[in-house]
Amino acid sequence: MDVTVFSTKRYDRRFLDAANEAAGNPCRMRYLEARLSAESATLASGAQAICAFVNDTVDAAALGQLAAGGTRVVALRCAGFNNVDLKAAAAHDIAIGRVPAYSPEAVAEHTVAMILSLNRKIHRAYNRVREGNFALDGLLGFDLGRRTVGLVGTGKIGIAVARILKGFGCRVLACDPAPPPALDGLAELVSLDRLLAASDIISLHCPLTPQTRHLVNEASLARMKPGVMIINTGRGALLDATAAIAGLKSGAIGYLGLDVYEEEEELFFEDQSNQAIQDDVFARLLTFPNVLITGHQAFFTVEALEAIAAATIENLVAFAETGRPAYPVALEPAG
Ligand code: NAI
């Protein structure tokens, strides 16, 4: 099967080639650096399958071009499919596959890395020591094991975070409308209000929905402990960045760790070090010493990339054999 892979980085190629080889090389990969859009879709002409990533545009126009070029299946190398027009895909008879779950531990461990770095100010200490500054002023931390951590969302990732924090001795609070039974003994289930009021550290692990959009906003910040630490490795729009800036300026937020950002499509996954950042809100966030930002890298471990590549090949092989990806994306209900 011919597969055109969009938005390819060196690491995608490495892991997809390995997974393809392990499966007996069922796919002939053609790697492109270009992001998928209506304009670039013609590059896939003649390929029965394409492979796309989280910031590719799989809209009606792109799907129309893909269908005209003979594409029958889109294999997403991610879990989310908010960038896909499912109705247009159905209209063009293009199947969509995704990777429903890869390593939750990868994201959980990055979350804890952010908590520890912000608390012990590792990002600042690293720079100081390189400049021969061994002063400790400004680097004062706290004992994590004596603090209360609130987890909003305790699915695959939230529960993995709870397990790690339990090991540190933290008191873990959780709010989740459908908590998994495995949470028993790891966290106390409380209301969101209680969690906001009682937590020293709040970490977001719920999906982005109309209900959770800007869950961290001016009103919810006012209900949190002054100087709270907020970590977002979920989705950028869970946090209102403008409200966060106001909270950082007033001291309401004592520490902020972000792996995701509401407007990240224009920023993340590319080297932009030779140009001015156009997003003023993002640029302002970068100026605070108590803000730590990573560019959507929480998932980025060997194990997670192996799992993503293996599931992608599985989707493609299943489609070639049965006309259906192994992990198909369910179509939206009509209307
Ligand atoms: P999951 O589906 O296993 O768990 C989500 C949990 O959130 C569920 O238990 C659900 O009941 C709960 N939830 C839903 N609405 C809620 C609400 N209003 N308040 C509190 N809890 C609520 O998902 P998983 O795999 O644990 O992923 C969590 C988040 O992490 C997702 O938003 C995902 O997009 C994000 N993520 C981020 C990555 C990164 O690299 N930064 C990589 C992978 C996922």
Question: What is the topological layout?
Answer:
Blueprint: E1 2-5, H1 10-22, E2 28-31, E3 49-52, H2 60-68, E4 73-76, H3 86-91, E5 95-97, H4 104-120, H5 122-130, E6 148-152, H6 156-168, E7 171-175, E8 188-189, H7 192-198, E9 201-204, H8 218-222, E10 228-232, H9 241-250, E11 253-258, H10 280-285, E12 291-293, H11 302-322
Helix pairs in contact: 1-11, 4-6
The chain binds 1,4-dihydronicotinamide adenine dinucleotide.
Tell me about this structure.
This protein has 335 residues and is α/β, with parallel strands linked by helices. The chain folds into two domains: 2-102 and 301-322, 3-Layer(aba) Sandwich (Rossmann fold); 104-293, NAD(P)-binding Rossmann-like Domain (Rossmann fold, 3-Layer(aba) Sandwich). The protein is 35% helix and 15% strand. It has helices spanning 10-22, 60-68, 86-91, 104-120, 122-130, 156-168, 192-198, 218-222, 241-250, 280-285, 302-322, and strands spanning 2-5, 28-31, 49-52, 73-76, 95-97, 148-152, 171-175, 188-189, 201-204, 228-232, 253-258, 291-293. Strand 4, helix 3 (86-91) and strand 5 (95-97) form a beta-alpha-beta unit. Helix 4 packs across helix 6. The chain is globular, with a radius of gyration of 22 Å. 1,4-dihydronicotinamide adenine dinucleotide binds next to helix 4 and helix 6.
Task: Tell me briefly what this model is.
The protein has 335 residues and is of the alpha/beta class. Helix content is 35%, strand content 15%. The chain contains 11 helices and 12 strands.
